[in-house]
Amino acid sequence: LWGQAREELQKIVGADSFATWIEPLRLTGVSEGTATIACPTRFLSDWVARHYSNDILQVLDRIEGPVQRLNFETRAQTARQAAAPAKRVAAPRPVAANDDLAAPLDQRFTFENFVVGKPNELAHAAARRVAEGGPVTFNPLFLYGGVGLGKTHLMHAIAREIQTRQPEARVLYLSAEQFMYRFVQALRERTMMDFKEMFRAVSVLMVDDVQFIAGKDSTQEEFFHTFNTLVDQGKQIVISADRSPGEIKDLEERIKSRLQCGLVVDLHPTDYELRLGILQSKTDNFRQQYPGLKIAPGVLEFLAHRITSNVRVLEGALQRLFAFASLMGREINLDMTQECLADILRANDRKVSIEEIQRKVAEHYNIRLADMIGPKRVRTVARPRQIAMYLSKQMTSRSLPEIGRRFGGRDHTTIMHGVKKIEELRSADHSLAEDIDLLRRLLEA
Ligand code: ADP
Ligand code: MG
């Protein structure tokens, strides 16, 4: 019957609103004129109660027989009630901070599952602090770093922790892309008031991968207003991006400066110890999934040495290894590892080439690739060229004469001069140093 009611509701409220608000609901029962509806989160139930109660009541009344009242239950309550009679332990938390507006939170992305090492300890500490809502909080908290270094993991962990500590808090986690999608939808359907109201009703707003809205002018504008309103009301904001605010191109200056006025912390590329730690922790999880599987000593160390790109790749490699070994009924040893992960290992062996460096740098500074090797001496061309020389020296094992040859047959002393120049500038010019770090990260990705 709920199925039929849903169909009617969809006709009444329209497909999009239905998908956003009604779809996640479940009718759990009707008794004495009260229909009980289960909702994944409190945020969602509040919203639905305010905006759709009449529609739902009418439809249910028609289909189910007399219904005069709605009783919304969040999954937290449902779970607690279900668990209560048996044992007096806390029910497992529902997927926190989540409703159809938000992206789902990954159950595995908790603080407990986050392995802390030198490269991420600052970001982790800041995330903890914000999640605990201590006396000194950072607002906004801006987390940035390369692909697969744990930004999304930390954001989910924060959302979950806040929701656990303050079940009443409305934590809204979503990607910048979803933010834009909702915004555009609201424009199209002329529901901007609802959109604004909805965002402004949250207590914690978390937007992942904010670089996505760079260049999207009206979305940026709306984001900026939402952001300001929430900050002014003392609401916590957490943002992530693949680069620092200053490095995001096509992002308005006023947004950059607002993003910078809280705490900006980065997740550095992993080092060997962190990778090994993560491998050990993931292995413990896999052992439960594949009981009885053996791993020969040295395998994890080998992986930590050889797979340096990012944590996601590392995880994928381990996953494949376990699946393969369990299929073959064999122990995981070095031979198997090399055979089974040949492609991943090869990809990680790949070193950056001078050509790639020239291309990326030219792209970044909007100059022609040909000017990298050409003779032009104007600063706007010569400086990027020197940066490319510097990165070539740093990131490849080529000698100065070899680098010179690839920069249009320049002399090795020219290359040396270029490298020195950038080294000097780097320590004096903060924004140049940031540029170079960014380029390096892009090249390493
Ligand atoms: P990002 O959002 O920065 O691209 P994710 O947060 O999605 O990266 O992380 C990619 C994968 O690596 C996820 O499965 C995540 O759990 C895992 N991961 C990243 N860093 C860590 C860490 N320090 N400890 C445990 N797992 C991690
Ligand atoms: Mg992410």
TrEMBL record:
<feature type="binding site">
    <location>
        <position position="152"/>
    </location>
    <ligand>
        <name>ATP</name>
    </ligand>
</feature>
<keyword id="KW-0238">DNA-binding</keyword>
<dbReference type="InterPro" id="IPR003593">
    <property type="entry name" value="AAA+_ATPase"/>
</dbReference>
<feature type="domain" description="AAA+ ATPase">
    <location>
        <begin position="137"/>
        <end position="267"/>
    </location>
</feature>
<dbReference type="InterPro" id="IPR020591">
    <property type="entry name" value="Chromosome_initiator_DnaA-like"/>
</dbReference>
<dbReference type="GO" id="GO:0005886">
    <property type="term" value="C:plasma membrane"/>
</dbReference>
<feature type="region of interest" description="Domain I, interacts with DnaA modulators">
    <location>
        <begin position="1"/>
        <end position="78"/>
    </location>
</feature>
<dbReference type="GO" id="GO:0005524">
    <property type="term" value="F:ATP binding"/>
</dbReference>
<dbReference type="InterPro" id="IPR001957">
    <property type="entry name" value="Chromosome_initiator_DnaA"/>
</dbReference>
<dbReference type="InterPro" id="IPR038454">
    <property type="entry name" value="DnaA_N_sf"/>
</dbReference>
<feature type="region of interest" description="Domain IV, binds dsDNA">
    <location>
        <begin position="326"/>
        <end position="445"/>
    </location>
</feature>
<feature type="binding site">
    <location>
        <position position="150"/>
    </location>
    <ligand>
        <name>ATP</name>
    </ligand>
</feature>
<keyword id="KW-0067">ATP-binding</keyword>
<dbReference type="GO" id="GO:0003688">
    <property type="term" value="F:DNA replication origin binding"/>
</dbReference>
<dbReference type="Pfam" id="PF08299">
    <property type="entry name" value="Bac_DnaA_C"/>
</dbReference>
<keyword id="KW-0446">Lipid-binding</keyword>
<dbReference type="InterPro" id="IPR027417">
    <property type="entry name" value="P-loop_NTPase"/>
</dbReference>
<dbReference type="GO" id="GO:0006275">
    <property type="term" value="P:regulation of DNA replication"/>
</dbReference>
<dbReference type="InterPro" id="IPR013159">
    <property type="entry name" value="DnaA_C"/>
</dbReference>
<dbReference type="InterPro" id="IPR018312">
    <property type="entry name" value="Chromosome_initiator_DnaA_CS"/>
</dbReference>
<feature type="binding site">
    <location>
        <position position="148"/>
    </location>
    <ligand>
        <name>ATP</name>
    </ligand>
</feature>
<dbReference type="GO" id="GO:0005737">
    <property type="term" value="C:cytoplasm"/>
</dbReference>
<dbReference type="InterPro" id="IPR024633">
    <property type="entry name" value="DnaA_N_dom"/>
</dbReference>
<dbReference type="InterPro" id="IPR013317">
    <property type="entry name" value="DnaA_dom"/>
</dbReference>
<keyword id="KW-0963">Cytoplasm</keyword>
<dbReference type="Pfam" id="PF11638">
    <property type="entry name" value="DnaA_N"/>
</dbReference>
<comment type="similarity">
    <text>Belongs to the DnaA family.</text>
</comment>
<dbReference type="GO" id="GO:0006270">
    <property type="term" value="P:DNA replication initiation"/>
</dbReference>
<dbReference type="InterPro" id="IPR010921">
    <property type="entry name" value="Trp_repressor/repl_initiator"/>
</dbReference>
<protein>
    <recommendedName>
        <fullName>Chromosomal replication initiator protein DnaA</fullName>
    </recommendedName>
</protein>
<feature type="domain" description="Chromosomal replication initiator DnaA C-terminal">
    <location>
        <begin position="353"/>
        <end position="422"/>
    </location>
</feature>
<comment type="subunit">
    <text>Oligomerizes as a right-handed, spiral filament on DNA at oriC.</text>
</comment>
<comment type="function">
    <text>Plays an essential role in the initiation and regulation of chromosomal replication. ATP-DnaA binds to the origin of replication (oriC) to initiate formation of the DNA replication initiation complex once per cell cycle. Binds the DnaA box (a 9 base pair repeat at the origin) and separates the double-stranded (ds)DNA. Forms a right-handed helical filament on oriC DNA; dsDNA binds to the exterior of the filament while single-stranded (ss)DNA is stabiized in the filament's interior.</text>
</comment>
<keyword id="KW-0235">DNA replication</keyword>
<feature type="binding site">
    <location>
        <position position="151"/>
    </location>
    <ligand>
        <name>ATP</name>
    </ligand>
</feature>
<dbReference type="GO" id="GO:0008289">
    <property type="term" value="F:lipid binding"/>
</dbReference>
<keyword id="KW-0547">Nucleotide-binding</keyword>
<dbReference type="Pfam" id="PF00308">
    <property type="entry name" value="Bac_DnaA"/>
</dbReference>
